[in-house]
Write a structure and sequence with these properties.
Strand 2 and strand 3 form a beta hairpin. With 148 residues, the protein is an alpha+beta fold. It has a domain of 82 residues. The chain has a seven-stranded antiparallel β-sheet with strand order 1-7-4-5-6-3-2, with helices on one face.
């Protein structure tokens, strides 16, 4: 049986629309990713990635997840909360489509949702927003066949 890499899985998820973007930072800090190739564009707005999550996929912060605050498309900066390990040029990342919660994926890929991240994908009165209880979603069933 042929093995598949995590990058190949991410590329398929991008094709399916579960990931919005795969990118490589050109610079950054603990609270933002700068990508002048993919994020610096007049075709994007400050809300292009509203309610999305970012997962760092290389470097010293590999595996860290943070919530998108907003995009400064003029500078190519994607601002994040909570802070992550400092982003440097060459660090790769993925932007997870709005409506897909990283804790729905954590059992498949071992992801952890940071405690300081705000979950705006559930209404504020929804008790699962505070407890982290998951609901079964189509995104989870699509990923159930992947083992990394």
């Amino acid at each position: 049986m042929a093995s598949i890499t995590g990058q190949e899985v991410r590329e398929e998820l991008l094709k399916w629309g579960l990931l919005r973007l795969l990118g490589t930072a050109t610079a950054g800090a603990t609270t933002y990713i700068t990508d002048t190739v993919r994020l610096q564009s007049g075709a994007l707005s400050s809300t292009s990635f509203e309610d999305c999550w970012v997962r760092i996929t290389s470097g010293s912060g590999d595996g860290e997840i943070s919530k998108v605050d907003y995009l400064d498309q003029d500078l190519g900066r994607l601002y994040l909360t909570p802070a992550v390990t400092a982003i440097v040029a060459g660090v790769t990342y993925e932007i997870i489509r709005a409506g897909i919660r990283p804790d729905d994926l954590r059992h498949e890929w071992g992801w952890q949702v940071p405690s300081g991240a705000r979950d705006r994908t559930r209404p504020s009165g929804d008790p699962r927003r505070q407890t982290g209880e998951r609901e079964v979603s189509h995104s989870r069933s699509l990923l159930s066949g992947f083992a990394l």
